Amino acid sequence: MDYCGWRSLRQWVQFKWLLVFSLLLVSALLLQIFKTLKESQEYLRKSDSPPPFALKLLSQEEIRKLFNYNGLWLFPQKQCECEKQPGNYIFQEFYNESELEAVKIRRKAEFEHFQRREGLPHPPPVLAQPNIPFGYPIHGVEVMPLHTILIPGLKFDGTKISLYKVTLKASLGTLNTLADTPDNEVLGRGQKQLSILTPSQNHLNFILKHVTYTSTIYHSGAVDIVSIEFGSSVAKFPVHVNQPTIPKLFDPGPERKLRDLVTIATKTFLRPHKLQILLKSIREYYPDVTVIVADDSEKPEKIDDIYVEHYIMPFGKGWFAGRNLAVSQVSTKYVLWVDDDFLFTETTKIEALVDILEKTELDVVGGSVSGNVFQFKLLMEQGEDGDCIHKRSGHFQALDGFPNCVVTSGVVNFFLAHTESLQKVGFDPRLQRVAHTEFFIDGLGSLRVGSCSNVIVKHQAHNKPSDPDQAALEKAYSVFRTNTQNQFKFKMALHYFKNHLQCYTQR
Amino acid sequence: MDYCGWRSLRQWVQFKWLLVFSLLLVSALLLQIFKTLKESQEYLRKSDSPPPFALKLLSQEEIRKLFNYNGLWLFPQKQCECEKQPGNYIFQEFYNESELEAVKIRRKAEFEHFQRREGLPHPPPVLAQPNIPFGYPIHGVEVMPLHTILIPGLKFDGTKISLYKVTLKASLGTLNTLADTPDNEVLGRGQKQLSILTPSQNHLNFILKHVTYTSTIYHSGAVDIVSIEFGSSVAKFPVHVNQPTIPKLFDPGPERKLRDLVTIATKTFLRPHKLQILLKSIREYYPDVTVIVADDSEKPEKIDDIYVEHYIMPFGKGWFAGRNLAVSQVSTKYVLWVDDDFLFTETTKIEALVDILEKTELDVVGGSVSGNVFQFKLLMEQGEDGDCIHKRSGHFQALDGFPNCVVTSGVVNFFLAHTESLQKVGFDPRLQRVAHTEFFIDGLGSLRVGSCSNVIVKHQAHNKPSDPDQAALEKAYSVFRTNTQNQFKFKMALHYFKNHLQCYTQR
Q1: Is some CB atom of chain B closer than 8 A to the CB atom of A117?
Q2: pTM exceeds 0.80, yes or no
Q3: ipTM for the assembly
Q4: Is A470 near chain B, with CB under 8 Å?
């Protein structure tokens, strides 16, 4: 090598070291890349995974083995089905063929009105895209109609640039910010579109932190999808316009007397002697609890009890009409339903049922009638032309904190309930004779039901009375009480139209 | 300069050009930086904005000028207030001082039970953080209890690395995926925690696209917050466990006869002669529409009309008890409420009211009583110790498509309503004598109310009847009808406890 003097020599030496250093750096990088590749290769080798393009789903068979409950496959399907077997019903079959087409048209129209009022079907879910430089609320922001709220969680954390332009848009309300800003930094205050234009990300985030939403239309139940944009990044979030349901609380009074907490309700028809026996047994344990009696007998008999309220209905108006009437007159927090042929004993502890409803979120808790709890579950599958409903005996799960109790869908006709909840569901006056499950079907989605085996009422014996008048009444009663073919057909057709159901299975 | 031979010369030339090139590059960069700074400076100068550290909110004064409606400032506050002036009421003042403390304790306990059952207060909103590399649903995913759904929108778009580890967690349900994967690529199938371990982002996204959620506890109304994690990035989204309310549809029948669509309901007390006049006027225009009469007179008089259903109540049981009873017996889609001293005329077109409810999402539509529509709005402010309720005459907005109609909160006692909606709210049997607004307060959050001025019913004249029996009855009636001081006090105290209200203002 030529050394061309002191200057050249130093340059050369420096250059040589620079070269050596660069080579070392490059070698280190290459080594790291090689290591990573080797790791991945080893992992791939270990797992024996297929080449990256084989994306397949589990087979239909394997999927059918998952997601089962009580023998029902509870997974989204277009259509639901009911197995054809005795005891299972396809509801449209209970209409005369000549009228069925017209019925289908009317049912469709009524269902559309119902859906419109309920805001159904719900719009598709709002999806967030990845890597959006915004923070925002995804769930849970509520505003009362015509009120204003602060939107929580709005922030921007994106690329640092010289000028930030962020736009917010709403449809059912207007936007503003509590930040005090120069005129042209925030445009559209109090409008449906709010634009922020600022060079400072600090300013931007301060403005966003204090954004307000004002509901402008009195429409409870509406959902406004508000958007926030920056360049091509858009995030959307829901604002629920909702007038909360006003509470309807009941004062239990300073001594929490049972008569201020519970009203007993019953319906009677052509069995005044049985009713008298029931009342006498109630009074043995509960001398002053109000009893409401709905009576559609032909010749209602006077009831001599100052704590009984007696309501006279048109003759034979009906079973569920009477139930609905009795419950409509209750002014205590809880109502205890009993049939007019029950018999209270020392195991009929209303206080125990009160305790369960006071401590849980249940709406209804059933007891036991002579050892029979009659618990059943109702499972629903949705379908295009109506839902499929499946009744299965038993319960869903234990009731936390109450070892004798479970959570279910339906119980016996001996239950304590929140008066409010019962009134909300109601007993359909069209069900005139035999009916029971229908109430719990109507309660689907509204009632949380429990059942306890340790609070027991007895059934009066079914002996034929010696008194000839009473015997005559009981004979008349049993005629009304028979579940005739016509009544059965009526109830099946009612499920088709009223509840928009397709079919029913039971086990 | 020394040129030390050919080699040194070439090196020198190359070095010189390298130097020149570097200098040019650096100059260009410096120029760009300078330009940007200048732009920002110009912008800052233009807007006269304060230095970047001055972040301030609008003054309290300026904020109070915003967000007003009908003179009420509808913005979140800890406490609400009612102006002290005649006609405005603070409800706790209607309790005796000696009992008030105990009442407050009981009211608090009942309110807590109510909140527990309603899932209130709602948990704070779920906030999404910026720049999370996930796509996910932010709102609108629902599953029926014990059912399974596919979670829409799950995807990953983050840094490319050799091995992706993504974990999903649920609390009220279990997770799985329909993707068919090798054993160790997905762990925890059917558990509350699902772990995905894969080197391929394609595989990861395929697995995520087919993630399923299975509800495992029968608890309608619960919200499960599901999380998805990758390293330190966590996204959360809600899954609503909900049993939809089953429909309760009414068949209008093949001819849409009014008697299959509407039932007229009324309550009568000591005014059988007025009731007869009403019924006669109804029959002039509607010969076969069912009329339900709830009667708590001392000696109820027989009604000779095959389409009237007459219900006898305990004497003087009360106004709202009777209203609740009558409505409990309706089995048509709509119920028309009338007072027993109204008079139908040719302007009393029930069909017009039916048309409005059929075509809108309203629950109730009021008409006009001799020109009086009595429309009023109810606005609510929330407060820690109870809400403040403000009654203002008038309406919120016009009703789209119906020029004679508006949206409001309360109307006259002449209205058509969805039977279901009326039964859900109910008429409180504790309101025995004078009451009207109470029903609409109870309906807050449940009823959507409209009012139309073009469907008119008349009021029977208030002349004293010539018949001495009738005159005697009317005299007795007017005694019951007087809003006594005690009744007024009772109603105010009832608002305090039952509706958890603090106070009331009116204008």
Answers
A1: yes
A2: yes
A3: 0.85
A4: no
